[in-house]
Write a structure and sequence with these properties.
This protein is α+β, with helices and mostly antiparallel strands. It is built from 20 helices and 15 strands. It starts with 7 loop residues before the first strand and ends in a 14-residue tail after the last strand. It binds protoporphyrin IX containing FE (HEM). Keywords: Heme, Iron, Membrane, Metal-binding, Monooxygenase, Oxidoreductase, Transmembrane, Transmembrane helix.
Length: 572
């Protein structure tokens, strides 16, 4: 029978009654279609009910009862007990109200793009140990963080780290949760990262920094009568991508030379990471995805993962990593770069492919963010800017630095070192929670019992606002590092170093990032004057645990003094 879409449905046994949706659905489900009949108006259909049976009401009720009993009651019991267990589990730890009941607070905070600042507020409001989820705590207590991350700690990386897998089925150094396997891998990779195994590390960095300075000099220098607005965030990003790809793949991918976000890599990374960060909280989704990937006939259901065959984005980089490793295996070429070191220390083919791609992800953005944040802090503090430029000029006048500057020479510039140390403290570039899990026996933190299995997140920004830094930790003030009190300096350094982690998972790329920043700042300030074009909004900086920064628009002019004249000579 053809039923017009706009037909009104009436229940004939009670023509006047208006049906609830439940009644309608159950009525339709139980009605015999032959009992439908056309009524006088074609727009109206009357549903002839079976002869009313008094028994039907109780039967329907019984059905409702069954549905409620079978489905809803267990679901309700599960929800109430899950919420109650979760709430009571960590009830002694204060935190935002809704965070005690659901992870949505955490998801919303991560999605805000301002999670680092939000976490600072949480520990400021609720104390050094605060609750940010039913089973998630957050700490900004340096002593506790060192205890968690210490070499002999029984705390382990939590399932938070699964989001750092590039290949969901293969753990890598930054994601690995098996301590023994991680320590072994770390041992195999340390020499490559430390730079010991890379013969021409500094020469390579000099070439990359010189490329960038040339690009700025040729394209972005303003004259007294005009302004060429340069988004320096973009170039700092390109420089770091070139440095890390040259270190890992043996040659730079050429972001600076192309003056373009090659393969849409950075844009793709930002878009993907904004989504992926949520899997660190909604871990069930991550586990489900991994299960799907493990079952061959289900893995095509998982879409959107980067693939080595992609022509764009992270997938393209994975493809280049694979080609690079294939070439080394096929030609037997022994190169003095990070990949060469990894292979000499026993990494197999698939490990090598993953790890060199991981180097790019862990090394490029972190150093780029640090460089941008330090640069902005210097540009915003005229007194610091003047002191730094004077220190560099005097070193040039004394012939104490080469062109480009050597790392060892830059380390002799105390104000530069103070600016870098203070800038990293003032704006730690990695604010991912990096949750560790409380061991089986549980723990006592500041007199509170914390049960086994609790996730403890690290508040990277909060740590660097510790009173050890004095009464003005929010302020960029390099002078705080230029004091004579050695004991105080030691205490401050210990906390500042947490920017790079601690213990058995401490950053392996710290030395590489230091060389890079030392060269970049000296080479920039010796030859250019730089000013932000919009002091009211100097940049856009979005935080998803790592930072995505752009529109750091500056006006660059050449300095007049002959000391700073641009030279391409590399003197070693
Ligand atoms: C200013 C720049 C950098 C900062 C602030 C930084 C920060 C960090 C932090 C906080 C961790 C600890 C992660 C954890 O808790 O498990 C880490 C680990 C790591 N970083 Fe960095 N990083 C920087 C630059 C680099 C560079 C340039 C590279 C590579 C060339 C690199 C490679 C690594 C690796 C491989 C690990 C893992 C170590 C392990 O799990 O044993 N980082 N980094």
């Amino acid at each position: 029978m053809n039923i017009p879409m706009a037909a009104k449905i009436r229940y004939s046994s009670s023509p006047a009654s208006v049906l609830t949706s439940h009644d309608t659905l159950l009525g339709l489900a139980n009605a015999n279609l032959s009992e439908f009949q056309d009524v006088s108006s074609p727009q109206q259909i009357s549903i002839q009910s079976p002869t009313p049976q008094p028994i039907l009401g109780p039967l329907y009720l019984a059905r409702y009862g069954t549905i409620v009993a079978v489905f809803l009651v267990p679901v309700l019991i599960f929800l109430v007990s899950a919420i109650a267990t979760r709430f009571f589990r960590l009830r002694s730890v204060p935190g935002p109200f809704w965070a005690a009941y659901s992870r949505l607070w955490l998801v919303r905070t991560l999605a805000s793009g301002e999670s680092a600042a939000a976490f600072v507020d949480v520990n400021k409001t609720y104390g050094p140990l605060a609750r940010i989820g039913p089973n998630h705590l957050l700490t900004d207590d340096p002593q506790f963080v060192m205890r968690i991350l210490g070499v002999r700690s029984k705390y382990a990386r939590g399932s938070w780290f699964d989001i750092l897998k590039l290949d969901p089925l293969l753990p890598n150094l930054v994601s690995g949760r098996n301590k023994k396997e991680h320590d072994h891998l770390r041992l195999q990779m340390s020499a490559g990262y430390s730079g010991k195994d890379i013969k021409d590390l500094e020469k390579m960095m000099d070439e990359r920094v010189t490329d960038l300075i040339s690009r700025l000099d040729e394209t972005w220098v303003s004259s007294p009568n005009e302004t060429r607005t340069c988004d320096i965030a973009r170039y700092i990003g390109f420089l770091n991508l070139d440095v890390i790809t040259e270190l890992s793949f043996g040659k730079p991918l050429g972001f600076v030379a192309a003056d373009e976000d090659l393969y849409g890599y950075s844009a793709h990374f930002e878009k993907k990471w904004a989504q992926v960060q949520h899997f660190a909280v909604l871990q069930e989704l991550n586990k489900l995805m991994i299960k799907f990937l493990e079952i061959p006939w289900l893995n095509s259901l998982v879409t959107g993962l980067p693939r080595k065959t992609d022509e764009q984005g992270i997938g393209k980089i994975l493809g280049i990593a694979k080609e690079t490793v294939d070439e080394r295996f096929e030609t037997g070429a022994q190169k003095s770069d990070i990949l060469g070191s990894f292979l000499r220390h026993g990494l197999n083919r698939s490990q090598a492919e993953t790890e060199i791609a991981v180097t790019l992800i862990s090394g490029a953005d972190s150093t780029a963010t640090a460089t941008r944040a330090i640069l902005l802090a210097i540009l915003s503090n005229p007194a610091s800017y003047a002191k730094l430029q004077k220190e560099i000029d005097e070193a040039i006048a004394k012939n104490a630095i080469s062109s480009p500057v050597r790392d060892s020479e830059a380390k002799q510039l105390p104000y530069l070192q103070a600016c870098i140390t203070e800038g990293l403290r003032n704006f730690p570039p990695i604010t991912l929670l990096r949750e560790r899990v409380v061991p089986l026996e549980g723990d006592f933190v500041n007199g509170r019992h914390v049960p086994a299995g609790t996730n403890i997140g690290i508040n990277a920004w909060g740590l660097q606002l510790n009173p050890v830094f004095g009464p003005d930790p929010e302020v960029f003030r390099p002078e705080r590092w230029l004091i004579d009190d050695q004991e105080r300096l030691r205490e401050m350094r210990q906390v500042q170093e947490l920017v790079f982690g601690y213990g058995s998972t401490k950053c392996l790329g710290k030395a590489i990032s230091a060389i890079n920043m030392n060269k970049m700042f000296v080479e920039l300030f010796r030859r250019f004057d730089i000013a932000v074009t919009n002091p009211l909004k100097p940049w856009t900086s979005v935080c998803y645990g790592i930072f995505f920064q752009k529109d750091f628009n500056v006006r660059i002019t050449r300095r007049e003094s002959p000391n700073q004249g641009f030279q391409k000579t590399v003197r070693h």
